[in-house]
Amino acid sequence: MKRSNLIGNLILMGLLLFLGLQVQAQQTFKLSGVPEIKVSGTSTIHDWHMVAKDGIKGQASVSLENNKISGIQSLVLEVPVKSLKSGKSSMDKNAYEALVMEKFPVIRFQLLEVNQITGDLIKAKGKLTISGTSRDITMDVRYKLTGNTVQFTGTHPIKFTQFSLDPPTAVFNTIKTGDELNISFNTTFSQEINP
Question: Alpha-carbon distance 175 to 117, whole Å?
């Protein structure tokens, strides 16, 4: 075999091996445990919050290297509007009506790109869809990798009007909700193990 062919074959084998290692490093993760999505806001009488824990779905494709996240290829999180609970049925009803739950029953977040990963901090851009309106948002997310699980935590401010929604009101408009909201999340994803 000619020397040039041998070198070419070695380079090709090295490239294939490198690509194979890259593929192996990319893992599929699925939402597990008891996630918590919290929406907090204000009103003319008191601050309030609603928490979702049930029915949330999520999946991610994550690259790992040396017990750190080296990249996230995809991540989707879906939260049923009806899973948001305040502890007060009248408030829940007003919130569901404001979010047009009957027509748009799911709040969805889809990762668009990861801008930077430094230590345990991820700077990312994603598309948040609420009541049929999508907006691109950028956020800082903390992560913790433990064995086959990764925990994501963070907060992000949004507004009702940002998603073409009117802030909810009650008691013949005498109680009004503020436009500003804060979304916080604490989610754990577990690596899917192929049999």
Answer: 43
CA of residue 5 relative to chain centroid, distance: 48
Q: Tell me the pLDDT of the chain (195 aa) as tens digits.
A: 555 555 545 454 444 444 444 444 679 999 998 999 999 999 888 899 999 999 999 999 999 998 899 999 999 999 999 999 999 998 899 899 999 999 999 999 999 999 999 999 999 999 999 999 999 999 999 999 998 999 999 999 999 999 999 888 776 666 788 999 999 999 999 998 755
Cα–Cα distance, 79 to 85 (Å, whole number): 12
Enumerate the domain spans of the chain.
Answer: 26-191
Tokens 């290297």 found at:
65
Q: Is the pTM of this model over 0.85?
A: no
Owner of token pair 């994603």? 126
Q: Provide the CATH topology of domain 26-191.
A: Lipocalin (2.40.128)
Look at phi and psi of residue 100 and say left if phi exceeds 0, alpha if psi is from -120 to 50, else beta. left
3-state secondary structure 145-170: EECCEEEEEEEEEEECHHHCCCCCEE
N- to C-terminal Cα distance for the chain? 41
Q: Encoding tokens for residue 135?
A: 């907006």
How far is residue 74's CA from residue 65's CA, in Å, rounded to a whole number?
Answer: 17
